[in-house]
Amino acid sequence: MINCLQLTESRMSCAAPKAPAGEEKKTSWPEVVGKSIEEAKEIILKDMPNADIDVLPAGSAMTLDFRTNRVRIIVDTVA
């Protein structure tokens, strides 16, 4: 399963692994759509300090290994 967040004005897609029972964690950040990458990282790290954040262009190849601390920011527009 892939942890991802797509930063676009037109689409947003996020699928993240669920936390173990009794341990709710935030798994998507729709509020960062339209923000800069640095702003998005800052917001994500406030909610998930141990996040390993990857920034990738749309269409990039990605590994499919399961990591509960990974957040992928997929960027398909440049401002």
UniProtKB/TrEMBL annotation:
Pfam families: potato_inhibit (PF00280). One of its GO terms (biological process) is response to wounding. The keyword Transmembrane helix does not apply. One of its GO terms (molecular function) is serine-type endopeptidase inhibitor activity. It comes from the Eukaryota. InterPro entries: Prot_inh_pot1, Prot_inh_pot1_sf. Keywords: Protease inhibitor, Serine protease inhibitor. The keyword GTP-binding does not apply. Belongs to the protease inhibitor I13 (potato type I serine protease inhibitor) family. PANTHER family: OS12G0548700 PROTEIN (PTHR33091:SF114), PROTEIN, PUTATIVE, EXPRESSED-RELATED (PTHR33091). This is Subtilisin inhibitor 1.
